[in-house]
Amino acid sequence: GTDVIRTLSGSNYVVSAGTYSFNTQTTTLTVKAAANTADSAYTCAITSNEWLQANKESTVTLNVFSVAFEDRTVTTATDQNLVCTISGLSQNTPVTWIGPDTNEISDSDTNNYVIDQGNYVFGSKASTLTIKTAKFASLSSGNVFKCKLKSALYPTDSPEAVKDMSLILLSLDVLPINKEVDAGTETTISCVITGITKQLDSIVWRKAGTDVTSLSGSNYVVSAGTYGSNSQTTTLTVKAAATSADSRYTCSITSNEWLETNKQTNVILNVFAVEFVDRSVSKKVDQSPLHAPPYS
Question: Cα separation of 262 and 267, whole Å?
Fold first, then answer.
């Protein structure tokens, strides 16, 4: 074996010989985080002249596992799952879930939670905590949940592994982008939808209750938009021929994750007229003011 003090790189190890007391002595090896990345076997070698022992070796096993538990951004209209993924376990071990109140979540609290320990397969498992929809009423954005476990192979001397995550709660909002433009001008109006975690399931633009894509001519172009960063912007391009009068349009969205079907938001497109005609004038006298009439 290799002497961890004199040979191995860096300051990854701290050896303590320990102090004799009551016929016993405990020696320790502290392994720093940088060296604690894979299962390892260490050897403590002792010499005891009173026992005529020189370099008596004992193997000490240090196994490692990894826990992945990441922050989540969720909607609150449906049940949500938090997943604690463990790999590298020597034996199956239960996962304890801890709520924002720092108390352990009980399997019996089925009104608010469902705990699934998951299947242990070749050293890995994924434990799931399902948060019931009703529980969100008492949660706040930024609440911290934790998953906790410790080795089942060496439970007495192994420390607990505790991982935490922040739960970000979204709220659904649709912001209409209203406009007022010069009559006979092509323009684009839009709805900005925030508080989603995926692409909307459907979008329909209507005028006076009628899907604009079924109206005569090619006066309208609908774009559903693309989801990104918990948001999606849908647009309606209104061609010049259709911007002759004030109009009210409706963007209707369906979001299965929010249990919303045909959620409608009004978008206003007002128009005004500007008239400014050529003039022929003499240069000898003052001329009446050139002006545009007020908005109509």
Answer: 15
> Quick check: 61 and 151 in contact, CB under 8 A?
no
Q: How many CB atoms lie within 10 A of CB 259?
A: 12
- pTM (predicted TM-score): 0.85
Beta carbons within 8 Å of 259's beta carbon, 6+ residues apart: 77, 78
Three-class HEC string of the chain: CCCCCCCCCCCCEEEECCCCECCECCCEEEECHHHCCCCEEEEEEEEEHHHCEEEEEEEEEECCCEEECCCEEECCCCCEEEEEEEECCCCCCCCEEECCCCCECCCCCCCCEEEECCCCECCEEEEEEEECHHHHHHCCCCEEEEEEECCCCCCCCCCCEEEEEEEEECCCEEEEECEEEECCCCEEEEEEEECCCCCCCEEEEEECCEEHHHCCCCCEEEECCCCECCEEEEEEEECHHHCCCCEEEEEEEEEHHHCEEEEEEEEEEEEECCCCCCCCCCCCCCCCCCCCCCCC
Cα dihedral angle (47, 50, 53, 56), rounded to 10 degrees?
Answer: -50
Q: How far apart are CA 156 and CA 30, in angstroms?
A: 17
From the list 236, 296, 295, the residue with the least C-alpha distance to 269 is: 236
Identify the segments of the chain with pLDDT beneath 70. Answer: 1, 4-10, 289-296
Q: How far is CA 286 from CA 279, 281, 291, in A?
A: 13, 9, 15
Can you tell me the distance from the alpha carbon of 163 to that of 150, in angstroms, rounded to the nearest whole number?
12
Task: Render pLDDT for 5-29 as a digit per residue (tens, 0 to 9).
Answer: 656 666 899 999 999 999 999 999 9
pLDDT tens-digit map of 224-261 = 999 999 999 999 999 999 999 999 999 999 999 999 99
Match 């300051």 to its residue by tokens: 11
